[in-house]
Amino acid sequence: MNLNTFYLAVAGLILAPLVGGLVAGVDRVVTARLQSRMGPPLMQPFYDVGKLMSKVIAPASHWQGMFVRWALVASLASDVMLAAGADVLMCFFVQAASASFVALGAFCGNSPYSKLGAQRELFQLLAYEPVFMVGILCMAKAAGAFDAYSFMAAQGPLLFKMPLIVPGLLFVVLVKLRKSPFDIAASHHMHQEVVRGVYTDYAGRDFALLEIAHWADVTVVLWICSFLWATSPLTMVVTAGLFLFAALVIDNISARLTWRTMLGRVAPITLILATANLVWLYLE
Amino acid sequence: MFGSFLKTSQVKSPWLMHFDCGSCNGCDIETLACLTPVYDVERFGIINVGNPRHADVLVVTGTVNKRNAVILKNIYDQMPSPKLVIAIGACGCSGGVFREAPNVLGGVDKVIPVDVYVPGCPAKPEAIMDAVVTGLGKLKGILEAS
Q1: Are B9 and A53 inside 8 Å of each other by CB?
Q2: Residue A129's closest CA among A162, A163, A150, A99?
Q3: What ipTM does this complex have?
């Protein structure tokens, strides 16, 4: 590892969660504007996490603290790997481990909502992980390697070689941002149905750390989506922004689906489309 | 610097939990009206949450009676410190017209400590928002003193 890679890894460690926090702030402001409201300040997610950090509350289970820290480490590790130009598929597996730790921590709690949310979190993992993996395989096939720098150095936009993975990636973004119609594991707005689902039993500092892990996850997912048009840093930011905006619009015009619909219809359809694209790339 | 950011954050991010203790729904409607685009309390970072473990401000409407006093106390105990309690409406403040009823204990302060009282039957959304801001001012004073 040369010194440049080290600096990029450190930048990924520090900047990725901050970018994720800003994305959360933009999300809340844009959502408010779409609903004819003024909305909170852009920095509101940072205030929320700062507030949660200073709260005094006993954890629902002693195991939860450990799982939260593991989830945070795994999420930040996936950011660092992506920034350092490591294998994108490995980065994806590390991020999946983070989501599993969140679910395991929720299973340790006492609340039935927490346990129900944890089960739904696992269903979500089952639904989006294959689609996401096939999407990354498509990018790797087109770029000729699995490392992030090769994806960014690909000749021309990858989008034109893999239009069929776009619905799948949008599905992943909706799930990771916890947006309707796929905010099944943890209701994003107003604590409905399962209260906060997988997050119900997390509180205080643990919840704050989990929020930072979530920001890191969102950054990774949007970053991978931006590889679709990685001809310059600006086009990458615009691509990620378009995915985010599409997710916000869909969130505001749709109601929550059930996990059965997600697992039985949305996941297979997006997976078939992405696999068809992968087969096409191999036959080309 | 980090400490002062944490203190500022506590005032700028009040997550609110609404508990209907036995209200006629008049004050509940006015409380929920605060979340609509007309009043938009999210401007102040306020979110309505359904989980006491995530809440900072407990907004209670209606009279407290012998049945729901235990639940009110339980919700209050589950909230992490520092926390605020706001009693909404005549019933929440004192028991209102129901205060003489045999099953009624009275206002919210008979069970848990109340920081801000909002009179009215029902209380206006503007008054409820003002109560939250007043409560946050009180919290800021406590944090600065500590």
Answers
A1: yes
A2: A99
A3: 0.93
